[in-house]
Design goal:
It is a single chain. By secondary structure, this protein is an alpha+beta fold. 40% of the residues lie in helices and 19% in strands. The strands form four sheets. It has a four-stranded mixed sheet with strand order 4-5-7-6. A three-stranded antiparallel sheet has the order 1-3-2, with helices on both faces. A three-stranded mixed sheet has the order 10-12-11, with helices on one face. It is elongated.
Length: 267
């Protein structure tokens, strides 16, 4: 049985010879045609065939990620982190991995999401790249921050929301991530294990959250016995509103009322 590499064909072999010679991992439409003496149509067909066969990965229209050498087993599997990092560089986006992907990374849950969730300032929507699923959530630049850079095996870095930011996002973005009330448990456990996280959580709630985030976070920390002196920063952010919000969104609004934080304690 022939190794798949022997089935590449002359053009494909020349393509990888060029990649290895130049030590390139990003190829753009228009780059290969003059090197291999191809027309633009022939180049597009070559890149399509290589991507369709799994030798290279199409990051976006006209941009491909290629291995530095022929992949073992005949199929290139760069992984979600590397594909994300390369794509974000290409579109000049600021980003951070968030949601269920970050919940698992920080050890809040053992559940592994088959979708990589990404806050960023450039693109939105679901995409499949290299056979893997991504959900890009476009947010304002001012809501990006409180991050952790993580080195990946390929040598570059991928950016996650920090532990505290990820906890805050369980409250702020609960409807997208379906993260309440379990997020309250994660915050309880994390702050009880490390009391220094409290001030950082308050900071992130103020900087990256909204009124509902401030109220729910304030009530939670209050119920955990955090001092009034520490909570005053959250109280300073409260708007002069008489409206009430449910402690656990999506549940019946039956429960006691906490006027200090404007919360209906419904669970």
């Amino acid at each position: 049985m022939k190794h798949r590499g022997s089935e590449l064909g002359s053009l494909s072999s020349q393509f990888f010879a060029y990649i290895q010679l130049k030590k390139k991992d990003i190829i753009r439409t228009g780059e290969i045609a003059p090197v291999l003496g191809l027309t633009s149509v022939q180049e597009r067909k070559l890149l399509f065939r290589l991507a369709d066969s799994g030798w290279i990965v199409r990051l976006k229209r006209g941009v491909y990620l290629s291995p530095s050498r022929l992949p073992a087993g005949g199929r290139y599997g760069p992984g979600a982190a590397l594909m994300l990092q390369k794509l974000m560089v290409e579109i000049e986006a600021t980003y951070q991995i968030c949601g269920p992907t970050a919940f698992n990374f920080h050890g809040f849950t053992e559940q592994i999401s088959n979708v990589t969730y990404v806050y960023n300032d450039r693109i939105s929507g679901a995409r499949t790249i290299g056979g893997l699923q991504f959900l890009f959530i476009k947010i304002a630049c001012t809501r990006l921050g409180s991050t952790l850079a993580v080195k990946i095996p390929e040598g570059s870095q991928v950016v996650y929301g920090s532990k505290v930011r990820t906890l805050m996002d369980t409250v702020y973005d609960w409807s997208r991530f379906n993260s309440l009330p379990i997020g309250y448990d994660w915050i309880r456990q994390a702050t009880q294990a490390n009391g220094q996280l409290v001030s950082a959580l308050i900071r992130d709630a103020i900087q990256y959250g909204n009124q509902a985030t401030v109220r729910r976070t304030g009530y939670l920390l209050d119920s955990l016995g955090v001092s009034k002196r520490t909570l005053k920063w959250l109280q300073h952010e409260l708007a002069n509103s008489q409206s009430l919000i449910p402690w656990i969104p999506g549940r019946s609004n039956k429960g006691s009322i906490n006027r200090r934080w404007g919360v209906i304690v419904n669970g």
